[in-house]
Amino acid sequence: MDSITTIDNLEKKIEKLCEQSISLATKKAYRTDWKLFLEFCDTMNLPALPANTDTICLYLASLSEKSAVSTIVRKVTSISMLHKFSGYDSPTKNEKIATILSGIKRSKQTAPKKASSINFTIIKKMIAQCDGTIMGVRDAAILSLGWSSAMRRSELCNLKIGDLSFEDRGLLIDIHRSKTDQEGKGCKIAIPFGSEICPVALTKRWIDRRSSIPLPPNEYLFTSLGNRARGRWHWPAIGKLDDRMVSKIVKRYASFAGLDASNFSAHSLRRGMATEAASRGVPERIISRHTRHRSMAVLRGYIDDGTIWIDNPLTAIFSSTSLPSSD
Fold it and tell me: N or C, which end of the chain has less CB nearby within 10 Å?
């Protein structure tokens, strides 16, 4: 093998390793963002790769009126990463870019809308709306397991039968890879049996309804069923469940429970479990171990919501001070 062939093979291997360092969802976002940036550069007759700082400034100006701050920040990140993957210095690492981004954030001056938390009372009401059809059985398992495990929707949809171990104390789940664990170190979370809602029993019921014979370990736990499955006792799976469907399922049953569906998303399950745990006095370290938060600041946002009535100075004041007389 000559040296040129060896270099080519090594470069391909490097490119593959770089691609494997990011998730599939992130790759999709990079592709979409890069396509839009290319279209902008074509329209303005400007080079896209490599782009210069002035081009990025013009692009930010074009986005400032029509895009959310989070979207603009993500697009800047995508442009930066595509330049790095292509062997160029990032044109976004510049004080001028930082100043423009700061200006965009200040001009919008709106806090990002957070998905409402689904507390224990709400999740019970939602699960109560799931009927005995195959779709209802699946959705009850998704809601109960999604809430109790505090998994992200991508993690929930990537679960396979072999990742589950039903034990005497409940369900043990292997999570092989997640948003904050791109290297695939993995972790385990335990779901004990519940009395009012039991994610262990509801998950087992879904697996049993899917097939009368044991499913192979590499089979995805949650599958798509299609509209034709509505009202059916049984219907064959038609592939892995898309993670976007989790939000649709959450909204559907929130609406069935008499709630405003627009306030809820798949993240409401994860956020809700952490908030509920905090409201019941569960220590932060135990919540973070279960939710697998790397950012304690994000987790504390949930915990603060859950303890807003408990860790409240007025609670102590009002409970220990009698109201003044009207005389």
Answer: C
